[in-house]
User: Fold Hsp90 co-chaperone Cdc37 from Cyprinus carpio carpio.
Amino acid sequence: MTTIDYSVWDHIEVSDDEDETHPNIDTPSLFRWRHQARVERMEAFMKKGEELEKSLTESRRKLAEAQRRVQELVSASTPEAKADLAKAQEEEKQLKKQERSWEKKMQEHRIEEKKMPWNVDTLSKEGFSKSVVNVKPEKEEETEEEKEEKHKTFVEKYEKQIKHFGMLRRWDDSQKYLSDNPHLVCEETANYLVIMCIDLEVEEKHALMEQVAHQTIVMQFILELSKSLKVDPRGCFRQFFAKIKTADQQYQDAFNDELESFKERVRGRAKIRIEKALKEYEEEERQKRLGPGGLDPVEVYETLPPVRHTHTTWSTETVTILLMTSSRAACAVESLFSTR
Assistant:
C-alpha cells in the first residue's frame, strides 16, 4: 500500500491564530506583534540578499575593469607600464578572491532561503491589485551606427583574445579562458566569431572554420542562457559549462544540431560572397576594356560571324589584339570585315 509522504509539510510555519493565551493578554495585539516581527525578519532577509547581489555585481565589474587594465599593460612596452603590471596583476588576483567570496556568500544565502519555513505571507501572494496590463519597459534600442561603432571599438581592443578563444576546443579550456577574460562574454565577441567563420570558409580553410564555428555556438548558447535567466552573461557562463559537461544526450544533440545548422549557413554565406566578388571583378575588367560608345571589344568579337580567308589572312590572335588595343574597336571591326 502506498503511503503518503508528509515530510513536504515539515517547513510550514503554522498560524498562531489558534494559540491559547492568558486571559489578561490582549490576544489580537499579540498576534499582530508576532506577525509584524515575522514580516520584519523576512524583509531583513530579502534586504540582505539584495545587498549580496549588489556586492557580487560590483565585484565582477571591478574584476572586469582590472583584467582590462592588465591586458592594456601587457600590450604596452613603456617602462612605466611594466612597473605597473605587477601591481595590476596583484589587484586582479585579490578581486578574483573577492568574487569567489561573494559567490560563496550568495550561495549560502540561497540555501538558507530554501530552508526557511513557509507561512501565511509566503504561501500566497497578491496576484494583482489593478486592472491594468503591466508592461515591462523596453530597453532603448541602439541605432545601427551605434552598434557598428561599439563593435569596432571592442574588436580593436580584444581582437587577439577573441581569436584565441575561437581556437579553443575543450570545455575546461574555454571556461577557464572566459573566467580570466569575462569581458569577452558578449554579443560583440559572437558577432566577430561569425565574421571570422565566413572569412575562413571563403579562404577555403574549412577545418579552421569548423573549429571557430564550435566556439561561436558556445558563445551563442551562453548569451541565450543569460536572456532566459535575465542576468548578465558574465554571471552565467559557468552555468552553461556545468550544464553542457553533465548534460544528457538530448541537450548534447541540440547543441550539435545547432552547430551543424550554423556551419551550413556559413557555407551558404561564403558562397554568395565569392559569387559577388567574381561578378564585381568581371565587371571591373569589362569597364577597363570599354571603347568608344561603351562597347566591349570582347563582346563585339564574340558576336561576329566566323572569319573567312580573303587576300589577307587574319589569325584569331591578330583580330583579338586589334580589338583589345584599338581606340576605335567597333569601327575597326566593321571596316575589316565589310568586303568579303
About this structure: The chain has twelve helices and no strands.
